[in-house]
Amino acid sequence: MATVYLADDLKHGRRVAIKVMLPELAAAIGRDRFLREIEIAARLTHPHILPLYDSGVADSQLYYVTPFIAGETLRERITREKQLPIEDAIRLAREIASALGYAHHQGIVHRDIKPGNILLADNIALVADFGIARAIATGAVSETDATAAGGLTSPGMMVGTPRYMAPEQAAGKGVDARADLYALGCVLYAAARVKILSPAQIRSKLDDRFRLLTGGSKTALPRHQTLRATLQWSYDQLSEDEQRLFRQLSVFAGGSTLDLATRVAGKSSEFEVMDILAHLVDKSLVVVEKPPDADSRYGLFETVRQFAQERLTESGQADDTRQRHFEAFLALAEEAYKERINQEEKWARALESDHDNLRAALEVARHNGPGPHLQMAGALAWFWQVRSHFIEAREHLTEALAASPTAIPHPARARALWGVANTITWQGDGAKALPLMEEALQMWRDLGDAQEVAIALEGTGWAQLHGGNNETACATFRELLKIQREGGDLVLINRAMVALGQALVVLEQLDEARKLSHEIVAFSRSRGDRRNEQPNAVRAERDREGSRRGDANLGHG
Predict the structure, then answer these.
(1) What are the pLDDT digits (tens) for 393-427?
(2) Which of 55, 348, 452, 461 has a CA between 20 and 30 Å from the CA of residue 436?
(3) Can you tell me the distance from the alpha carbon of 380 to that of 336, in angstroms, rounded to the nearest whole number?
(4) CATH classification (class only), 325-547
(5) Parts of the chain belonging to CATH 1.10.10.10
(6) Which residues of the chain register pLDDT less than 70?
């Protein structure tokens, strides 16, 4: 990936590591994308993330500079000691997980977690090379060939180290934060149990947790049989209604609220389901979590969930239960879509807490056909954008659009077009996004939905701006602001000002941008809108040089 040079920073009197990207990778990524991704990674400030000192281009060579860590990598320690003490392995896993959790909260996925990228400074873990695999991955996405739905693409390049990859990553599919967690599990296993199973063997066995628990030992099998027998005995003691709900809960990934459990159970009364849940909790088959400021969630430990899924399949009710699960989460996605303008942060948090359930529902939607898939993907497009799940968004929206008819204007298609155009815009290809956004805009006009027309007009401006049509984008945003002021919705007016403010910064019209910024900050703070508090006059001045490169410092997205 890079050639590493040890160097002296003469100005600051310190030793540093200069990493120069290999020429073939540098050519594939491109200068602008490399600098943009490195700039994002440079914002990560965490005690277990290796900081970035500098980056740039010299004689067409892309490079970045980090501290020189005098210790060793985790790979070197594993090679030397063969197997780490359990206490050390757990401590290092916690440190790495802390770094990953922080980065994932910032919307950044590492994509290449492995022992060689874990530096040990006084035996404290430092995760290195954030942003590098991301730059390669996004570069691969931008260079893929066009496919059916109007030039849309899906990522297909494998980025990372094969023996630590999640299966989806190894297959070249879109990945998210879960890929890093999978890799961390492989790293922990390599550190603590490398003598027993390889990461590839673990991956092949993960689908059957009961067998994995035996560790391959014949002497452990009776104990494992005891675990299964205990679960079976507990299940047999349940009433018919308790058995039915226990089976149905297995379709939830990451648990559920009482309301969603009631919908999937096909019941009309939450009190009836609540009573059965209480019995299952008392019998230690269901666990309950009570997060602050949110509804209680009910779920199953994963081994118990697998047992319940087996019973669900045996009952012949699996398809019907999964269909109700899909319908419940489609309804949730539609409700969030309707209220996203004025309650964006609330609904983004709610959908994120059920992201795994939404993914499961999307798989059922895929199976049900292009119509349901298009409807659900379109309803989630805004959420994927807000939470930066761009790869996932592009995969679903591209596939659903390619499979759906194009002749008749339809809201599901219009919002999916908006979603995929927005995704491509924020992945840095405004020129490719613009015709798709214009198609969405025209479709909303044909459908006569004034609010959606304005939002598609906003997306058109962002695509123009990211495509380098700065003057045109500014004119589009001025038109948008006029429309939103005539409509009188203060939230939409604020969004339009954010967009116009960004265009003004890019055009270096900072006096007008400064005035807008003060209005944006005041309104956003009054509503607890943290995403739009950032644009202000001081930042605009500080980022003046960055604005010449078209950096998005005020963007709503």
Answers:
(1) 999 999 999 998 776 778 999 999 999 999 998 88
(2) 348
(3) 8
(4) mainly alpha
(5) 219-316
(6) 1, 24-26, 28-29, 131-160, 193-227, 407, 528-557
Kindly list the distances between the CA atom of residue 225 and the CA atoms of 221, 233, 303, 317, 381, in Å, as whole numbers in the listed order: 6, 12, 13, 26, 45
Residue 161, both tokens: 């180290």
Place of tokens 């490169």: 549
Helix (H) or strand (E) holding 197: none
- Residue 145 sits at φ, ψ, to 5 deg, of -70, 150
* Helical packing angle, 318-339 and 258-265, nearest 10°: 140
Q: Which residues contact 60 (CB under 8 A, 6 or more apart)?
A: 26
Distance CA 378, CA 364 (A): 15
Query: 50 with 126: CB under 8 angstroms?
Result: yes
User: Contact, 520 vs 505, CB < 8 A?
Assistant: no
Please, which residues have CB within 8 angstroms of residue 379's CB and are 6 or more apart in sequence? 330, 333, 334, 336, 337, 415
DSSP string across 413-432: HHHHHHHHHHHHHHTT-HHH
Distance of CA 352 to CAs 210, 259, 347, 414, Å? Answer: 29, 17, 8, 24
Helices (H) and strands (E) in the chain, counts: 27, 9
Q: Which helix (H) or strand (E) holds 157?
A: none
CA-wise closest residue to 129 among 183, 185, 35, 66: 66
| Count of alpha carbons within 13 angstroms of residue 537, beta-carbon side | 9
In this predicted structure, what is the pLDDT of residue 355?
A: 95
Residues 70, 65: Cα–Cα separation, whole Å: 15
How would DSSP label each residue in 64-77?
EEEEPP-SEEHHHH
Using an 8 Å Cβ cutoff, are 125 and 194 in contact? no
> Do the beta carbons of residue 265 and residue 281 sit within 8 Å?
no
Give domain 219-316's CATH number out of 2.40.260.10, 3.40.50.150, 1.10.10.10, 3.90.215.10: 1.10.10.10
- Reported as type and span, the H/E element at residue 293 is none
Q: What's the rounded Cα separation, in Å, for the pair 461 and 467? A: 10
Q: At what angle do helices 240-249 and 258-265 cross, to 10 degrees?
A: 110
**Strands 297-299, 2-9: pairing kind:** unpaired
Which amino acid is present at 12?
A: H
The pTM of the full predicted model, rounded to 2 decimals, is: 0.58
Which fold would CATH assign to domain 72-206? Answer: Transferase(Phosphotransferase); domain 1 (1.10.510)
